[in-house]
Amino acid sequence: MIFAIDEITKSSAILPNITLGFQAYDSCMVIQQSLEGALHAVTGRGMVVPNYQCFLGVPLSAIIGHSTSTHSILLAQVLGLLWYPQISNFATSPFLSDKQKFPSFFRTVPSDAFQSRGVAQLLLHFGWMWVGLVGVDNDYGLQGIQLVRQEIIKAGACVAFTENLISRQSDRNVPHIAKVIKKSTAMVVVVFSRDLDFAMIVAEMMRQNVTQRVFVASEAWSTSTIFSTKSLAQFVTGTIGLALHRGTIMGFKEFLNKIHPSLPWGGKWVKILWEKTFTCALLDQSNITTVPSTSVKYCTGNESLENIQNSFTDISNLRVTYSAYMAVHVVAKALEDLRTCYNIKNLYVNKICSNIFNFRPFEHKNLKRRDSVGCLKCSWDHWPDPQKSMCLPKTIEYLSYEDPLGATLAGITIVSSLVPNIILRLFVLHRNSPLVKANNYRLSCLLLLSLLLCFFCSLIFIGPPQRETCLLRQSAFGMVFTLCVSCILAKTIMVVFAFMATKPGSKLRIWTSPWVSFLIIFICSLLQLTLCIFWLSLAPPFPKLSTGTESRIISFECNEGSAIAFWAMLGYLSLLAFISFTVAFLSRGLPDSFNEAQYITFSMLAFLSVWISFIPAYFSAQGKYTVAMEIFAILSSSWALLICMFFPKCFIILFRPDMNSREYLFRKGKPLSN
């Protein structure tokens, strides 16, 4: 691990200009010390305070270890609560693959679930259908033997015996296991154990003269050098087993040869190694020696590991060591990904992507039942309560009359509908006045009626969506507004025809007849009606429940069925309005006593402005606010037409009767029309 850290620090390819550090803890294979070391690493020096960091130094990025499954499971349970990364280089228990229990645990070795299948396939390959099973009494041995047993039975083989090595009672348990192996007719024994534990069984087999057995070894002892001694080798000769992947670490041999007690990072481990390798004692305050003081041989410091051949300097069989080396590189690669990740970098304060002080609270769609390991996902129409103990139904939202926004829009609609009623009554009372006649009395009444319907069609959008209302909403809106804009287009064209027909010998006098204006209205409305019929026939709107972006609310809305048809309808309306605006703008200089062309120009300009503004507002709003936006656009455009087209005329009728006279019309050269 130290070699890997030093290698990464010196490399410019990963974490350049960054120096990695480490803290090492020795568990002495005592589970309490493993837990204490992990908590020290997480919380800091001194008293262990879970979930707090008690020192100001750079925090550790991850914990690498423990090498045994039992210790790793305990550490993973604690570190998982803190979501603290843990990478083991030798813990193979299949339990550790459960990400619900151990969310922050990783490893650089395969799970025993794969090893168990491999052992079972190995037995079947050699035709060994009658086998014995021995496992050490920890998570590694118990789970490994259980998985092998399941795979063997599944394949049709039989288990002669299953024994657990109780390491705490080895003096009584080991002879029993050796006796069971001796008496059993099974010549093949599968052993899931550490090398030291199984060595005790082999030694007992020597005493009881148990021979002619074939052992199938798990990866924990299959490559151990303990059994290479002459006394033990004769009892394990013929052993076959699985082993971890063996790797090569470039430069590791040179690194080992340069190890010396004077190095600052060696600690007591290097001193112990030095004293045992060279059979001498180091002279310092932390001197460790088991040699009697009367026969002490002191180390000179000139010793070298370069020519020493032992298990420490042998790099020909790097398996567990290689896994530890890879674990360090995994941590370094993760840190490099964090350093170079664009999204992570832009989470920092004052960057353009995010403001970390204005995050919305994270929303969870799962609930956790009491005494349950995992979480259950609520159905799409439910949401967990704040305690995450039960699923509550989501609120169904739509623009209703009880809603303040819906009630306000409905009230505005009703009040607004009174205005065209009043103006229509005023026009009927003054239908014989020169002003009303000059502005085409019939078309004006039809326009006022269409504006009245425009206000009323807003009410269809309020209330719970139903199949009938969804079909009627947009089609009614489209048809009524087409009628309204068609009336204005007909008035615009009639203004132009009326002026041109006054020229001597003009043949356009026939086009000033009332039937021409109604023909224009009929043709324009017929095209919109055809579009609506196709829309309702091929892709009709329908009511739909949608969760949208607000997780706690279900929007009850009308799906338009075909977005193309909806925008085609609005596009046709805009086209009619644009034609009216263009014709009125070009004819604004014609003699006109009541400025009809100018009023049409302003009314169409206001109409187009409202619906162009509606497009971004429609896409930005959601749920009931989308409906409210469309109602607001309908009311705004209707009021724009009403104000521009009729308020000036009402003002003349009520407050300027001198302008509502035949003499005034003749003075301005305005022809009358019936």
UniProtKB/TrEMBL annotation:
| Molecular function, one GO term | G protein-coupled receptor activity
* Cellular compartments per GO CC: plasma membrane
Pfam family name, one: 7tm_3
UniProt KW Iron-sulfur keyword: no
Q: In what way does this protein cross or attach to the membrane?
A: Multi-pass membrane protein
Which keywords accompany this UniProt record?
A: Cell membrane, G-protein coupled receptor, Glycoprotein, Membrane, Receptor, Signal, Transducer, Transmembrane, Transmembrane helix
Where do the TM regions start and end?
Answer: 405-429, 441-464, 476-502, 514-536, 564-587, 599-619, 631-655
Gene3D superfamilies, A to Z: 3.40.50.2300
The protein's location, in the record's own words, is: Cell membrane
Name all G-protein coupled receptors family 3 profile domain ranges. Answer: 405-663
Protein name, please? G-protein coupled receptors family 3 profile domain-containing protein
**Protein's organism:** Aquarana catesbeiana
